[in-house]
Amino acid sequence: MGEPLRIAMVSYYLPSGSKIGVGHQAHALACELSRRGHQVDMISECPPVEGAPYAHRRVRLHGPLRTFRFAQAVRRLDLSSYDVLHAHGDDYWLWRRRAALHVRTVHGSCFEEARRIRGAKERLRMVLLGLSEVLAAVVADRTVVVSPHTRRWVPRSHATIPNGVDARFHPEPLERADHPVILFVGAWHGRKRGAELAAAFTQHVLPRRPDAELWMVARDAPEQPGPGIRVLGALTDEELAAAYRSAWLFCLPSSYEGFGIPYAEAMASGLPVVATPNPGARYVTDRGRAGALVALDRIGPRLADLLDDAPARKALTAAGLARSAQFTLAAVADQYEALFAERRPAPGTRAARALPRSRTA
Q1: Can you tell me the distance from the alpha carbon of 174 to that of 208, in angstroms, rounded to the nearest whole number?
Q2: Residue among 238, 272, 106 at smallest CA distance from 169
Q3: Angle of the 237-246 helix axis to the 261-268 helix axis, nearest 10
Q4: What average pLDDT does the segment 6-24 reach?
């Protein structure tokens, strides 16, 4: 590591107030960078995360359209004392340089979500957020995408840096349940398609394996989701890591993922992955080499087949563990530190005024 940096990290979402994956990833990266000696200030609408090693600057908002109003609030902040401004969203109004280096990470495409989301109002909201992502990519000095497919919607990107898996997600000790267990991490409604997985489990898995269970880490699942289905609600990282090591299979049949950190967490924990072929799942599983990619209407039969095929599960575990080495949080932080080393002279200096804006690499 080079000299310690002052880093302003912007994320509307944090685990303290939201289940959105971007917030969990921003929090994990901020923790890792803080542990490496950097001074990290997290700017967020969410409250502080208990025990976080980084500082926290809360932007309090009330009423509708808070994600858009959060961007306006960030625009009014004085960020000139920071070496790096690293935004995980909501930096599209920062067209004048606010720090020596402005980095934007694009975690997926709202345009992709707009193609699949239900309801005209939500679709319009996603299109507007997608336009803000495009603008943010133009405004930033360096734009990072978390998977190659995301570049399709980003007019100006410089690097692909995946999301990182915390060291708490590992395969030891493996304590598989004494009966077949399929683990799901996501939401019952929307693009995560928890309801569809529950239906497939009931229709295809239970008739062949009456002793099987589907564990659902979801906050919005109904109280009585169906036979053999256990709703675990929200879990801590430690509880989730234990669930990964206990289950027999992991399944997240999302219609869209920009990356899909649960796939990487499961693989790092030694848990075979079954997914629908969305962009994130294709990237994380190396196009199906490190996980099973199955169309939604075939998810149930494939899960039932794998529960009966221990050698196939073992092969998927080995491939997933090998692939997950690319997604460790330490490796991801290394890549960001290398990117931050390209930081520019402080705003207002003669060198900064003379330096042209970066071009697409």
Answers
A1: 25
A2: 238
A3: 60
A4: 94
